[in-house]
Specification:
The protein has 145 residues and is mainly beta. It is built from no helices and 17 strands. The strands form two sheets. Strands 2, 3, 5, 6, 8, 10, 12, 14, 15, 16 and 17 form an eleven-stranded mixed beta sheet that branches. The chain starts with 18 loop residues before the first strand and ends with a strand.
Length: 145
């Protein structure tokens, strides 16, 4: 019934505590981390993490981002490689190229990007040579070009 052995607890964050770049902070350079990352400031450079990247409403990234999951409320311009789920909130503005397995877009998000959807085995699902481009607002849906 009672035991001295304790069950190991899983960490809430992959690799430890989440990292933050706060509002009114500007960084130029590359970031490599195993933990989650939240950007509320400006980053001109690349982010590579085995965790989740969150771009807050006032956040902006210009560069390449490689991560497992991403939630975007702010702006992104560049190459976005998400191995699992990309969630675009209504205030998100995305430009560039995007490669994801799963994509969730709230009405109002601006998605002006070439998009490649990968299957479970990493196989690419057809979004056509031009990819998926468009702006999603109200009850409209993004249109493939």
């Amino acid at each position: 019934m009672f035991s001295d052995k304790q069950k190991p607890r899983a960490m809430n964050e992959i690799g430890g505590q989440p990292n933050r770049i706060e509002k009114n902070t500007k960084i130029k350079g590359d970031i490599v981390s195993e933990a989650d990352f939240r950007i509320d400031g400006k980053l001109d450079g690349n982010v590579k993490t085995s965790g989740k990247v969150v771009i807050g409403k006032d956040g902006y990234i210009h560069g390449k981002v490689e991560c497992v999951n991403a939630d975007i409320e702010g702006s992104f311009n560049g190459e976005l490689l998400v191995s699992d789920l990309l969630t675009l909130k209504s205030s998100a503005v995305i430009e560039g190229t995007v490669s994801v397995t799963k994509l969730a877009v709230e009405p109002g998000a601006t998605f002006n990007a070439s998009c490649t959807m990968k299957g479970r085995g990493g196989a690419t699902k057809g979004s056509g040579p031009g990819g998926l481009k468009g702006s999603v607002s109200g009850n409209e849906q993004a249109k493939a070009s």
